[in-house]
Design brief:
The protein contains twelve helices and seven strands. With about 300 residues, it is an alpha/beta fold. It has two domains: about 60 residues, Helicase, Ruva Protein, domain 3, CATH 1.10.8; about 220 residues, Uncharacterised protein PF01937, DUF89, domain 3 (Rossmann fold), CATH 3.40.50.10880. The longest helix has 23 residues.
Length: about 300
């Protein structure tokens, strides 16, 4: 997925807000924003991928400000607040009449978790509204490949689950649990180092997803989305041997849609920006469960 005109404001605004989080030093803020302007001027082009630019932006901000994890406190809060909603989500899934219905409900809960995202222009969310949004998840599902994904999942022996944000990872527990019930082995992958509000191993252990998954690993990098050239050998071994990959969030969608796939990938996300919404042919703030296949062009 390439950038659009609208990505320019988002990339800058998110960087600006991250600088504000990273340091209170006026001099460092000015230096960081100057570097941000230079980065966008040199790299924002029609062939650029938003998540790749986002990764470059975050690395510059962390380097200039000396703050390795500007969103550490917000990530902790996100995990705590999401865990308060977990019992409701668990109840909704448990009321499913069969494996497929529980899988479907778990997918919807996982998608709703993707709402937890900071500083995207015009995107707002409240932890207090998560419960209600979960109840409305089905009606907001604009791309629905869940049945087909279920058929793939129940035949898969090895599944890799790519997480996205802190807080959101709480709801990933529920889908991992349903995948396990279908008989496959599930490896969950988080970021190797902090990047924006993406989940790291610290978040995974805090929410307890390691108690549900067969294994939790890292991608080996602080990248947004999935950039194969930056992944660790440990991750690549798991990824390349998987029968099925489930990828959460916009960053993974932005990068995976530009990748050569070897196995089916299920993208689960909320279209929180106009660029992503337009790519998938949906309205903004709609839920997406999109299957991608090897050498198959994505349907618009």
């Amino acid at each position: 997925m390439k950038v659009s005109f609208e990505c320019a404001l988002c990339l800058f605004q998110r960087g600006y807000m991250e600088i504000m989080e990273a340091t209170e030093d006026p001099g460092l803020r000015l230096k960081a924003v100057s570097h941000l302007f230079r980065l966008l001027a040199n790299n924002f082009s029609p062939e650029a991928i938003p998540a790749v630019l986002g990764t470059m932006r975050d690395r510059i901000i962390k380097h200039v400000t000396g703050n390795p994890d500007p969103y550490i406190e917000k990530k902790k809060l996100s995990n705590i607040e999401a865990m308060k909603v977990l019992p409701l989500a668990e109840k909704i899934i448990s009321e499913g009449k069969n494996h497929e219905e529980r899988f479907r409900r778990a997918c919807l809960c996982a998608i709703i978790g993707n709402i937890i995202e900071f500083n995207i222009p015009e995107h707002k969310f409240s932890f207090n509204e998560l419960g209600k949004i979960i109840l409305d998840a089905e009606s907001d599902l604009a791309v629905d490949d869940i049945h087909e994904a279920f058929e793939i999942a129940r035949k898969s022996k090895s599944i890799v689950y790519l997480t996205d944000n802190a807080g959101e990872i709480v709801f990933d527990i529920l889908l991992v649990r349903e995948l396990k019930r279908l008989g496959g082995k599930v490896t969950v992958a988080v970021k190797g180092e902090p990047v924006y509000n993406d989940a790291t191993m610290e978040d995974a252990l805090f929410v307890g997803i390691d108690k549900v998954a067969d294994k939790v690993i890292t991608t080996g990098s602080d990248m947004m989305g999935l950039i194969i050239s930056e992944c660790s050998q440990d991750f690549l071994e798991a990824y390349n041997s998987a029968d099925f990959v489930i990828a959460k969030g916009m960053g993974n969608a932005e990068t995976i849609t530009e990748s050569e796939l070897k196995v089916p990938h299920l993208l689960l996300l909320r279209a929180k920006c106009i660029n992503v919404a337009n790519y998938f042919g949906v309205k903004r703030d709609k839920n997406i469960a999109k299957l991608l296949y090897p050498r198959r062009e994505i349907k618009r």
